[in-house]
Design goal:
By secondary structure, this protein is α+β, with helices and mostly antiparallel strands. The chain has a single domain, classed as RutC-like (60s Ribosomal Protein L30, Chain: A), CATH 3.30.1330. It is built from 3 helices and 7 strands, in the order αββββαβαββ. The strands form 2 sheets. The protein has a 5-stranded mixed β-sheet, covered by helices on one side. A two-stranded antiparallel sheet has the order 3-4. Strand 1 and strand 2 form a beta hairpin.
Length: 153
């Protein structure tokens, strides 16, 4: 089953790749490597999850925010590669979680992105990951995610 067929089975339709909100590119391709810029939890042009985990945002909402960031990252990868079947391997997820003082649940939150990537790509989705807590986030987003992927030769 293709990655997009799996997404459809999950009830997920990829949005158009979100535009950059400042002076950067949404993704860059260098030979067979694609790296996305930090993807935020945009949904229909609105920031779906704002605030800090451990304060205004629950762990469950953070998980969903990370999942939404991953969906937006998949849209960027599709824009870069032409289709998701051109992804040979997802290499790395780098996630930042907008965290209140003392919050330590960043790995659980980022599982929202990892679980989605692993389900969509199977063994091609097995990746390394960084999960960091930060005190401030652009646009007050709850989560930000960058994805590194290798394309087929």
């Amino acid at each position: 089953m293709t990655a997009e067929a799996i997404l459809n089975k999950m009830g997920i339709t990829l949005p158009a790749a979100p535009a950059a909100v400042a002076a950067y590119e949404p993704w860059v391709r260098s030979r067979n490597l694609v790296i996305t810029s930090g993807q935020l939890p945009w949904l229909d042009g609105e920031m779906a999850y704002v605030g800090k985990l451990g304060a205004e945002v629950s762990d469950e909402q953070g998980y969903e925010a990370a999942k939404l960031c991953a969906i937006n990252a998949l849209a960027q990868l599709k824009a870069a590669a032409g289709d998701l079947e051109s992804i040979h391997q997802v290499i790395r997820l780098e996630g930042s979680v907008h965290s209140a003082p003392g919050y330590r649940g960043q790995p659980k939150v980022l599982n929202g992105a990892s679980d989605l990537i692993n389900e969509v790509f199977g063994s091609r989705g097995q990746h390394t990951r960084t999960a960091l807590g930060i005190s401030e986030m652009p646009l007050d987003a709850a989560v930000q995610l960058s994805v590194w992927a290798e394309l087929e030769s």
